[in-house]
Amino acid sequence: MDPTLNNILDQKGLKWVFVGGKGGVGKTTTSCSLGVLLAGCRRSVLIISTDPAHNLSDAFGQKFTSKPTLVNGFDNLFCLEIEPSQAVQENLQEDLSADANGGAAGLQAMFKELGTSIPGIDEALSFAEIMKSVDSLDYEIVVFDTAPTGHTLRLLSFPRALEAAFAKFNNFKDKIMGLASQFAPMMQGAQEQMLAKLEETRSTVERVNTQFQNPELTTFVCVCIPEFLSLYETERLIQELTKYGIDTHNVVVNSVLFAEPDACRKLIARKRMQDKYIDQIQDLYGEDFHVVISPMMDEEVRGPALLKAFAKNLINPYKPPSRVEGVPSSTAVVPKICEKFKLSPDEVYAFLEKEGLPVPRSGGSKA
Ligand SMILES: Nc1ncnc2c1ncn2[C@@H]1O[C@H](COP(=O)(O)OP(=O)(O)OP(=O)(O)O)[C@@H](O)[C@H]1O
Ligand SMILES: [Mg+2]
After folding, report:
1. Is 51 close to ligand 1, i.e. is its CB under 6 Å away?
2. What are the pLDDT digits (tens) for 48-94?
3. What's this model's pTM, rounded to 2 decimal places?
4. What is the CATH number of domain 6-253?
5. What angle do CA 191, 192, 198 make, to 5 degrees?
6. Ligand 1 close to Cβ of residue 81 (< 6 A)
7. What residue segments make up the domains of the chain, in order of their start?
8. Distance, CA 139 to ligand 1 centroid (Å)?
9. How far does residue 56's CA lie from ligand 2's centre (Å)?
10. What stretches of the chain show up as alpha helix (H) in DSSP?
11. Spatial separation of the C-alpha atoms in residues 276 and 317, rounded to whole Å
């Protein structure tokens, strides 16, 4: 199959795109980039983060809130960072304030009854609330930047949980209504209002659930990195999605290394980026914490032998070898060039870098 995401851009009827995978593999980066691509060929695009640790703001370098906000430099790309627990709180608050005649306690009790009878119902209800408002906003396509797999699978299980909750609720609804009319007639209006609201939520859930199971409207993009844990989790994710009847036919394999001609330059560029943050870590924590620098290893750390090798660096500060056996160290060459051509080390490093032959500076991490 074509190794690109063009199929998503080409599928003009698509309305919901989920982007998911293990923590830290590039879900946010992929969903934001996909949002940017879609903005080029769709009327309006909304990216929603359902991850409580939001980072759409970080990815775009712009602050987003729980209201759709236009992304700088676009006229049809919006971002929204939702706080699931906040949504249900606000919703509950609305119900309570709408009811001025003492029914609040009754409503809260009903919510509580619902809450205790079905685990996760709070979250499920708030997701339904979010879907209801997103649905009414009328974006042509919505990209979900999801939280790591476990959380996302729970989110996708909400429609079923809600259906079960509504079924259960119907069983004791009549009892509650009967009691309410008997003991607190003035509460009846509030209870009816509440039931109407629940019914509205139920129908949204049903509609959204049907859409999520329609491959013409919905697809799930899996993001992974080429490592055991990520591959394993992707497989589990795909199996669960199949169970929920959600289409998935794209896998983005991110952060792949290539032995390209400038691989060395790339490595040094990344080292420089890391050095910047290591300096910040030292500034922040160096005085009060034991800051242990653990090097990236050649392989995944799996099995006792590799764990021992990893452990060694936790008790002895890692010192990179200054030269590979049988190969002269490029760093060691610099002083020789300095001496022979009467140049300062800085001049030599700068020259080599300009020529595309960057050499890591010996000693400190500062470049
Ligand atoms: N191909 C790449 N090359 C370099 N950096 C990358 C690449 N992909 C992602 N990153 C960086 O890696 C970090 C993690 O990426 P991202 O936030 O997209 O992952 P995530 O899966 O959304 O993480 P989380 O599970 O925490 O939400 C970010 O700083 C991002 O800029
Ligand atoms: Mg993310």
Report:
1. yes
2. 997 777 789 999 999 998 889 999 999 999 999 887 555 555 554 45
3. 0.78
4. 3.40.50.300
5. 90
6. no
7. 6-253, 258-269+320-367
8. 26
9. 7
10. 6-10, 27-39, 56-60, 84-98, 104-117, 121-137, 149-183, 188-212, 228-244, 263-285, 304-315, 330-341, 345-354
11. 19
